[in-house]
């Protein structure tokens, strides 16, 4: 398990108590992430990558609600998609989820490359993450490449804010994929 390194220090923007609260939020997020990756998903792993902890979880394709206009949510079942790929990106220092990222992924296996494809933010009642239903040739081992662009959001704090400034690429080799639909 990759654990946050708690490298942020008190500064003119954040005191020790605020950092402690942020770390507790990160610990709760990491517990939920481990539960999803190890207990709920068919497969999942995590690794440190620059300023981030990047994790994936894989499940069978699943239906989701899609906004079709103000106040109108519509259930959309998977069509040809048979794989749901979930990606979590959290802060390597405090473990909290990092929002507003542009993420692309590519799966390579079974003689094909699937992607690159965008992996958008996906709201989930148990864990904020990025996710997408995709179509794969079938069950088997795949290599997963994840690319995270530097986010354009502003950062507070002269002491701790010089972060997330470079593109990050992560590779998970030989991940087991179980295809199908829920």
From TrEMBL:
Keywords: Signal. It comes from Deinococcus irradiatisoli. The keyword Signal applies. InterPro entries: Metal-bd_Tp34-typ, Tp34-type_sf. Belongs to the UPF0423 family. Pfam families: Iron_transport. This is Fe2+ transport protein.
């Amino acid at each position: 398990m990759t654990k946050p390194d708690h490298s942020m220090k008190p500064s003119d923007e954040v005191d020790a108590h605020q950092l402690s609260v942020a770390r507790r939020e990160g610990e709760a997020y990491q517990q939920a992430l481990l539960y999803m990756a190890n207990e709920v998903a068919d497969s999942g792993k995590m690794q440190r990558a620059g300023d981030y902890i990047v994790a994936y979880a894989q499940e069978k394709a699943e239906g989701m609600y899609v906004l079709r206009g103000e106040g109108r949510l519509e259930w959309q079942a998977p069509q040809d998609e048979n794989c749901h790929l979930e990606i979590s990106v959290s802060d390597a220092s405090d473990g909290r989820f990092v929002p507003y990222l542009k993420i692309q992924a590519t799966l390579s296996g079974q003689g094909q490359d699937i992607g690159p494809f965008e992996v958008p933010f996906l709201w989930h009642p148990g864990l904020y993450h990025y996710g997408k239903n995709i179509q794969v040739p079938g069950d088997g081992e795949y290599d997963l490449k994840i690319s995270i662009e530097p986010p354009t959001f502003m950062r507070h704090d002269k002491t701790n804010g010089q972060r997330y400034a470079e593109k990050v690429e992560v590779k998970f080799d030989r991940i087991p994929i179980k295809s199908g639909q829920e």
